[in-house]
Amino acid sequence: MADEGEDLFGGGFDDFGDEEVAEQNPWAEEEELGEGLDQQQQELAGEQQVEILEQGPGQAAPAAQQQRITTRYLTKYEKARVLGTRALQISMNAPVMVEVGTETDPLEIAYKELREKKIPFIIRRYLPDNSYEDWSLSELIIPER
Question: What value, to the nearest 5°, has the Cα angle with vertex 46 and ends 42 and 50?
Fold first, then answer.
């Protein structure tokens, strides 16, 4: 058996006195910062400030809507993602954008919505220069199954 005060794995317990723990209070700095925030909030209560951030090198930027580079056709990968996501939403009782009739399969309802271009999704296509283009599904040419 291990002796009292000795770890089973060969190391001893580190016995720190209460004095050492009390001196190292990591929350003391945050308490002091919190008091300063209250004063700043009171000063800014009367005026609204808007900060415009410049785009950093790692952030994407939207491409101009008129100067689109990517194809107008919905790719098979985008189609699969849109149909799967929309079918999941429909199965979770999201409102349906088309007349359902007797159809109960969420995937078939999603196909019907896609054919009629009624799915309220926006496709974001990223470009190599880290910018992107947003396409509404109503703007895209959708290939048949």
Answer: 100
Q: How many domains does the chain have?
A: 1
Q: To which residue do tokens 């349906």 refer?
A: 96
In a domain, 44, yes or no: no
CA distance 72 to 84: 21
Can you give the residue range of the structural domain that contains 73?
A: 61-139
**Is position 66 within any domain?**
yes
Task: Answer yes or no: is 12 within a domain.
Answer: no
pTM of the full predicted structure?
A: 0.57
The CATH number of residue 65's host domain is 3.90.940.10
Of 145, 100, 91, the C-alpha closest to 118 is 100
| Cα–Cα distance for residue pair 29/5, rounded to 1 Å | 34
In a structure prediction context, what are the per-residue pLDDT tens digits for the chain, which is 145 residues long?
Answer: 555 655 566 655 555 555 555 455 555 555 555 555 555 555 545 545 555 555 555 566 676 667 889 999 999 999 999 999 999 999 999 999 999 999 999 999 999 999 999 999 999 999 999 999 999 999 999 988 6
